[in-house]
Amino acid sequence: MFLNQVGSTSSTFIPKSRVNSPPPNSVVEPKKSNRFELGVPAVKRIHQKSNLKYQTNEQDVDNEKTTENISNIHRNSINNLELDDDYDNGRTYELPKFGGYSSNDKKIFNHHDKSNIFETAPFNVVEFAKGNGGLKNAINSSLEDGIVKDYVWLGTIGIPTDELPNNTKTKITNKLRNDYHSESVLPSDFTFQGHYKSFCKQILWPTFHYQIPDNPNSKAFEEHSWEHYRNLNQEFADKIVEIYKDGDIIWVHDYHLLLVPEMVRSKLPNAKIGFFLHVSFPSSEVFRCFAQRENLLKGLLGANSVSFQTDEYARHFLQTCNKLLLADITDNELRYKGQTVKVASSPVGIDANKLIKQQHSELVKNWRHLIRERWPNKQLVVARDKFDRIRGVKQKLLAYEGFLKKNPKFIESAVLIQVCLRSSATDPVLETEIMSIVDRINSLSPNISNTQPVVFLHQDIDFAQYLALISEADLFVVSSMREGMNLTCHEFIVATNEKKSPLILSEFTGSADVFTKGAILINPWDIKQVSESYEIAFNLTQTEKEQNWKNLYNVVMKQDCDYWVESSLKFIEDSWRSQQEKKNYHNLDVEKFISSYKDSQNRLIILNLAVIPTERILQILTELSFNNDVYMLSTFKRIDLERLYRRVPRLGLIAENGGFIKLKNGGPWLSISNKNNDDWIETTSKVANSFAERLPGSYVEIGECTLKFHTEQVEDQERKSSSIGDLIFHVNNSDSNIHATLINNTVIVQESDLTLKAVKLLINYITKTGKINDANLITPASPTSPISGNEQMEFLPKKLDFLTIAGNSSLLIIEPVLEYANELKNVDHVFTIAFGGDVSNAKEHVEGLNELFTVLNSAAS
Fold first, then answer.
1. Of the ranges 214-228, 294-308, 376-390, which one carries the lowest mean pLDDT score?
2. pLDDT score at 781
3. How far is the first Cα of the chain from the last one, in angstroms, to the nearest whole number?
C-alpha cells in the first residue's frame, strides 16, 4: 500500500529567524517574549514537516515554527547533520543565541565548499513529531493491529535539496527506503517553493476554507505557481509508476496532490487508487473561483474512490463536478466520460486506547498535579489552535470577554488558557487585535495579585503538558470558521473521562458532523451566541455533563483510527472491483445468445434507443416481435414514439424514459409517473426557459412527465457549458424526487428512478398472476387525450426464461435497469448488452446498433 503526501515547509529558502527569549518551560510558567524578525541565521535551515535538519555543534537556531500539520511524509526525520568547528582554516564562529545576525565576513562555507560539507556530513534518523498527526497515528495503529501489513510512505523530505550532492541524496533516500518504508520525491527547491508556499498555501488552502484570495499581484500568481504545482504532482505520479507492483493500493492524501490520481491513471489504468481530502471541500460557488477548476476536478476523477470528512463535503464535490464538468451524479457516485468514481464520507478518528495509556503515564500525572497547584479552585477553559484567522481565535476571545462582563463572578473563578501554534504566514494585524483583546480581558480583574483571566501562549507545548491540560480542563472550546476535522476535540473527549467536561464546538468543523449529540454547537460569527454558550456550559449539571460525554465518547471509540483505515481501504477495494466488473464486460457471445434464445419460450427484449429507426431496424423488430415481448424504451413522447413505430403493430412502447408504457399488440397507454407530484414540471420549465432566453440556439421541450433543455444548435460553447451546469445544479438541488442529466447535448429532467420503476412493473406484469389497479400508478392514456380514470389489467401468468436489455450507457436511465436485470435469479437466460465504449453495468458488449440488430436478426431467423 502506498500512502502519498507532499512534504511542506514553513520557511523561505533562506529563512528568517526570530529573536526570542527562551521559550517557557511549561504551561505553568508562561513568559512573555518579544517577537520581531531580525535577519538570516548563520547556518540552520529547518523546514516544517521536514525530515532533515542541519545544525551546528554549538546552537540549534530555530526558524519559524509549523503552520499546518498537513502532511507527514515518513514518520521520521533526519537530524544532526553536523559541521566541524574548525572548518574553514580553523576559524570558529559563535552563533547568536535564539537567533539573530551572524557576521557577513565570517561565512561558515563559501559556494565552492558546500558540496564537500554535505558530501561528508553524517546524519541520523529520529522520530519526527510534526506533520499530519492524524494520518501518521492512524497508520501506526493499523500496523500494530494487523490491519495494514505491508506499506510504503511516499513524499518529499521537506528541505532544500539543490545544494546536496547526488551521492548524499542517494544515501538519504536509500536510508529511508531500506529502514523506514519510505520512498522519496526530490523536486527542485524552486518547484517545491512554488508548489507549497505559493499555490497550496496562498491559493488552495484559503479557498478551500472560504477565504478567497483577492490579490492577483501576489507572488503566487507572478511565479506561475500552478506550473510548479502540476510539476510536483507529476513527479509524485512518476515515482508511483516506477515503484508500483500489481495489487498495490495507492492512497493519495490531501489537497497538495489533487492531480496525482489522474496522472497515475493515465499510466496505470487498472491500478487501485483512492483519494482522501483531510480539509473541507467548499461549495461549487466557491470552487468555481479557481482558475484551474476543471483541471483540479479532473485530477481527482482518476481515482476509483474519493473520500471526505463529512457528507457535506462529499455533496459539495458531487455538485461541483455536476455543475462544472457536467458529470452525471447520484448520491454516492459520478460518471464522467466513461469513468465511474465512488464518493463517500469517512471521518478520521484517533487512537483512543493509546491516548488513555499516555494519560496514565507518570509524566502526565506530574503535569496534572502542577496544573492543579498552579490554578487551585479555578475552572479551566482550554483551547488549542493554529494562529490564523480561520481558527476563530479572535471571535472566541471576544465572546469570552462578553461572557465575563455579563457574569463578573467568573473573572476570578475561571481562566481561559489559549495555546496558539505559530504560523509561517505572519499576520501582525491579527496579532495586535488579539493581544489587545487579551489585555482588555485581563484588565477586568481588580486584583493584580490574582491569576489573570486569560493565559495566552503564542507557541505550542509538548504533548504531555497538553494532555495534562485537557485532562484538567472544565471546558474545551473550538471556534474554527472552517476546518476539515478537528481531532483535538476527540483527544479532549477521551482525556476528560474523569471530569466529563463539556465541549463547545463550531458547527463549521467536520467534527460537528459526528458530534451532533453531546457538543454545544456554535456559530463563531455570532459572538453573542458563543458568549451565551460559555454560560450554558458552566451551568450544566453533572448528570447532563455525563450524558453528553457518554454520547461523544461512544462516537470516538466507534469511529477510531483503525475503523477509518480499514473502512477506507475496503472502500477503495470495493470501488475498484465494481468498476473492473463494469469495464471487464465481454464482447457478446453470439452463439451462446442464439442458443439461449432458441432454448427459451417466454422472452422479453427491451431496447433503449434514442434514434429514428431505419427501414432495416423496423423490419427486424417486426419479425422479432412476432413471438416475443419486445419493448422500445425511448426519450421520445408517446405520440412521436407511436408515429415512428406504427409499422410494427406488435411492438410494445415505453415513452419518455419510462413515463408511459403501451403494452404490445395495441394495448392502452399506462402512466407510470406519479401524477400527484408533477408540479415540478411547471416550476422547472420556468427556470429552463429563463436559461433558454439567455442562450441563443437553445430551447425547452416540455413532455407529459419529462422536460428537455436542448442545446444542440448553440454556437457559444463556453456559455453553453455554463448554462447546462447551472441548470443541472439547480434541478438536482431543488427537489430530491427529480433528477437532471446530460445526454447528447440535451438536459433531460424526470422523476428519479422512473425508468427502473417502469421496467420492474413490466416484468411483474408479464411474470405474475394478478391485477394492476393502483390508480396512482397505472391509468389509461392516449396520445391525444388527458389521463384519467383507472383500469384493471388482467393477464396470464408465465415464467420468463429469456431477458435481454440493451442500450446506450446512462447513469440515470439505463444503468439502474441493467444492474437490476443482472441480479435477477429466477430468469434462466439474462443478457445485458451495451453498445458504445462507455463503462457500464452491462455484462456484454457490441460495437453499435448495426451489430446489435444483426445478432437479433440471426436469433429470430
1. 214-228
2. 45
3. 54
Pairing, β 152-156 against β 339-345: unpaired
SS3 state at 780 = strand
Q: Where do the DSSP E strands lie in 104-175?
A: 124-127, 152-156
CATH 3.30.70.1020 domain range(s) in the chain = 678-751
- Compute, in degrees rounded to 10, the torsion defined by CA atoms 477, 559, 344, 133: 60
Q: How far apart are CA 339 and CA 273, in angstroms?
A: 13
Q: Give the span between the Cα atoms of 408 and 428, in whole angstroms.
A: 31
Span 712-738, average pLDDT = 86
* C-alpha span between 540 and 195 (Å, rounded): 48
Q: For residues 801 and 518, give the distance between their C-alpha atoms in angstroms, rounded to a whole number.
A: 56
Please provide the DSSP assignment of 609-655 as one string. Answer: --SPPPHHHHHHHHHHTTSSEEEEE-SS-HHHHHHHTTT-TT-EEEE
Task: Quote the cell numbers at residue 843.
Answer: 455484462
Report the topology of domain 352-559.
Rossmann fold (3.40.50)
- Give residue-wise pLDDT tens across range 490-527: 999 999 999 999 999 999 999 999 999 999 999 999 99
Q: Model-level pTM?
A: 0.75
Options 3.40.50.2300, 2.60.120.260, 3.30.70.120, 3.40.50.1000; which CATH number does 585-676+753-860 get?
3.40.50.1000
- Angle, CA 226 vertex, CA 162 and CA 388 arms, to 5°: 85
Question: Helix H segments across 145-276?
Answer: 166-180, 189-192, 205-208, 219-222, 225-243, 260-267
Q: Grid coordinates 471487464 are at which residue?
A: 584
CA distances from 570 to 544, 567, 577, 746 (A): 38, 5, 10, 37
Give the number of C-alpha atoms closer than 13 A to the C-alpha of residue 639, restricted to the C-beta side. 7
Task: Quickly count: other Cβ atoms within 10 Å of residue 376's Cβ.
Answer: 8
At 544 the three-state DSSP class reads: helix
Burial category of 754 from C-beta neighbours within 10 Å (exposed 0-12, middle 13-18, buried 19 and up): buried
* Ranges of H-type helices in 456-560: 463-472, 487-495, 511-514, 527-538, 542-558
Integer Rg of the chain from CA: 33
| pLDDT exceeds cutoff 80 at 361 | yes
Q: Greatest CA separation found in the chain? A: 107
- Of the candidates 691, 681, 748, 754, the one whose C-alpha atom is nearest the C-alpha of residue 722 is 691
- List, for residues 337-357, the tens digit of each pLDDT value: 878 899 999 999 999 999 999
646-662: per-residue pLDDT in tens? 999 899 999 998 999 99
Query: Where does the chain hold its CATH 3.40.50.1000 domain(s)?
Result: 585-676+753-860
Nearest one of 703, 395, 661, 437 to 533, comparing CA atoms:
395
pLDDT band at 791 (very low <50, low <70, confident <90, very high): very low
Domain with CATH 3.40.50.2000 in the chain: 352-559
So what CATH class is 678-751? Answer: alpha beta
Alpha helices in 407-442 (DSSP H): 428-442
Q: With contact defined as beta carbons under 8 Å apart, do 581 and 573 qualify?
A: no
